[in-house]
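pls design
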């Protein structure tokens, strides 16, 4: 069985930093220098010279991930139909 460290290096992760309101979807550990391509004011994609996408940065993440009718991120396994619901942090307004 592979060690936990192996899974740590290859696991896709979603992180959120509430101090800066930035979410990051990491597909794999960066093994090379990446170029950060600014797709819009709220989206940056990290790409290696060989075209490998390492991650997607969501700027202003709360506004992109949260809507009035949603308070969670739903992760769906399309092959099995299984899903996991993860609550999102709400920001205080006013």
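designed seq:
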């Amino acid at each position: 069985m592979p060690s936990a460290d192996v899974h740590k290096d290859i696991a896709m992760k979603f992180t959120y930093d509430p101090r800066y309101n930035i979410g990051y979807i990491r597909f794999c550990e960066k093994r090379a220098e990446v170029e950060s391509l600014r797709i819009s004011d709220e989206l940056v994609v990290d790409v290696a010279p060989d075209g490998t996408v390492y991650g997607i940065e969501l700027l202003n993440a709360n506004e992109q991930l949260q809507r009035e009718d949603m308070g969670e991120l739903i992760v769906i396994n399309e092959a099995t139909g299984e899903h996991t619901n993860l609550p999102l942090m709400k920001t205080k307004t006013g």
